[in-house]
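Quick one, T. Sequence first:
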Amino acid sequence: MRLPIRDDHIAQGTTALLLIVLAFLTYSGTVSVWVSLGVVLACLAATWKMFVPVRIDLGPRGIIQNSFLGSRKTPWREIARFEPHEQGVILYLTQDDSPLAGFASIDLACRSMKPEVEAIVRYYMESRRMRTGSSIVKMADDLSNSKSGSAAS
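Structure tokens:
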């Protein structure tokens, strides 16, 4: 399954507008372009994930995140747990319940496809619990081979 992960354009637009207002207020308060530019760049560094387009591939081999910054692959065996939320699913890479556990997580926030994303994550997490990770890949390969074999007949 491939999905764009940024579907909240209202939040992106609001954040961009707030950054412009912050730049104006900082400049009017300090009358220094460099200070206001530094504040805006610090805010952009903190919110960069809102603006970088990311594509997520969910498959038997794991989660692959693609953006212009590069690609990151996370096998299912590295996902410790998941939690559904109102906008999607959060995949935690650790069993830690501390507030900092969210920094080591993958947030699959896609409101329009939340039920599908949750079902896919639940399926792969249950498959991982019942089998080893390589069995999930073997099962997916067997499934694709049986589909291609039946299509050729």
